[in-house]
C-alpha cells in the first residue's frame, strides 16, 4: 500500500490551516475608507462609520490614527483594539 497520497493530503491540509492562522485583516485607511469598510472595524457599526465620514468631511483628514477618538461615540479603547488595522495613508 502506497502512503504518498495520504501524506500529500495531510501536508496540504496542514498548509491550509497554517495559512488561515496567519491571515490578517486588511488595513483600513480612515481618511479614505467608505462606510462598509469602516464598519468592518471592531466596535464600529454603520452609524459610527457614518460619523467618522461626517467628522472627516467637516474637519479634514485625520492627522493620526489616535485622532479617531475625537469622533463622538468612539473612545480610545476602540482605537486601541483596532490599532493594527488603522492607517492614515
UniProtKB/TrEMBL annotation:
GO molecular function, one term: DNA binding
Gene Ontology biological-process annotations: DNA repair; protein secretion by the type II secretion system
Domain Helix-hairpin-helix DNA-binding motif class: residue ranges: 36-55, 66-85
Gene Ontology annotations for the cellular component aspect, listed alphabetically: type II protein secretion system complex
Signal peptide bounds: 1-23
Xref: SUPFAM superfamilies: RuvA domain 2-like
UniProt keyword annotations, A-Z: Signal
InterPro entries reported in the protein's UniProt record: Competence_ComEA_HhH, Endo/Exo/Phosphatase_dom_1, Hlx-hairpin-Hlx_DNA-bd_motif, RuvA_2-like
Name of the protein: Competence protein ComEA
